[in-house]
Amino acid sequence: VAEAPVLRFPAFISKKPGLPPPAIVDSIRRRTLLCYNYHMLNASQTLDRYYLEMRGKCLALAADLDRVARADGGPAMLVSDPRLKKLNAALAVLTDGKADKAERVQLVFSDRTVGPNPPAQ
Amino acid sequence: MKYIDPHIHCVSRTTDDYRYMARCGVVAVSEPAFWAGFDRSSAASFADYFRQLTEVEPRRAAAYGIEHYCWLCINAKEAENVALSREVIRLIPPLLDHPRVLGVGEIGLNKNTRNEITIFEEQVDLAAKHNQLILIHTPHLEDKHKGTSIITSILKNDSRIQPSRVLIDHCEEHTLKLARDAGFWAGLTIYPVTKVTPQRAVDIIETYGSQMLCVNSASDWGESSPSMLTDTCLEFLARGHGEAEAMEIFFNNPCRFFGQSGKWRIEPKG
After folding, report:
1. To which H or E segment does residue A89 belong?
2. Inter-chain contact A41–B240, Cβ cutoff 8 Å?
3. CA neighbours within 13 Å on the CB side: how many for B22?
4. Contact assignment for A14 to B211 by CB distance below 8 Å
5. Fewer CB atoms inside 10 Å of the end CB: C or N, chain B?
6. Predicted confidence (pLDDT) per residue in B125-146, tens digit
7. Is the per-residue pLDDT at B235 higher than 70?
8. What is the pTM of this model?
9. What value does the mean pLDDT of chain B take?
10. Residue in chain A nearest B208 by alpha carbon
11. B213-216 vs B185-189, strand pairing mode
């Protein structure tokens, strides 16, 4: 509680014109993120709020994979299709115990080549 | 709570959507020029489209008490046709003084091809020569990160472009920093399927802050909805954030960015 004024600082200054540029404000804010949300839902409350939705999304993906597997040619596709390989790589990000999962999953699904692409056919 | 939807394609929406927005407290919108779902056959089609954006939609919106502004350009997808694009670009300068035109947009890339890059650079040049604000379309899905990198590089290498007069739209978790760290405004586009959800949008706001950030619904001819804007605000408030901070994001920030045009008539509140 004693630290609250300091921890609210990034949110407070972000509204003032002419103060540090957003990159600096964001840098401060990210460093204090856990505390910035001190007045917000804690982890347990956050999980309570979103758990059923998370569970539902997990089941939906499981059912999607079952549907592909049941279809003609499904088992072979599950191990060979590049889209499903990317999906598996993304799923590995979810369980690797590291932070910034959404950003890293985005990069799994991103074209990382350099230079212009050929026109679409 | 009053809202501004800073990126919505009203030409694709019904009067029911205008009524819904008015009921929710949306008082103003800005509509970029974009792809109509099919490639148009001539520059004349664009001349009519620009008349729809500058004359028809402002009247339709006004019937629901909503201020309507727009942006003009050749969109990134049809920019693959360089000859047509150059014909369309020639239509734009006489319209830039129109009181409802905020700038050049949404220009950008779609599949990151050489032709798209050529036309993007020509439209950046158009905006620079006429001292216009720029609204940027970034590609979707697997092309987004690479496209956003190319776009920000081109803009940063043009000394005439002030980053604070450019909004990079359709940012996501992996591209927001590319825009914001270079001093550009960033936009989050919220969709019911396939792209950023209201929950992820609020996660991004909590992680990166709300400064120089706008949230929009896009609401185009695909599966989309004006309710994505208000749903995102509800998610923001439901997590315990205050209405004053919500107003910064959903009302004041668009006013600040658009206010640089000299045509936007709504002042930030509070």
Report:
1. helix A82-94
2. yes
3. 15
4. yes
5. C
6. 999 999 999 999 999 999 999 9
7. yes
8. 0.88
9. 97
10. A26
11. parallel
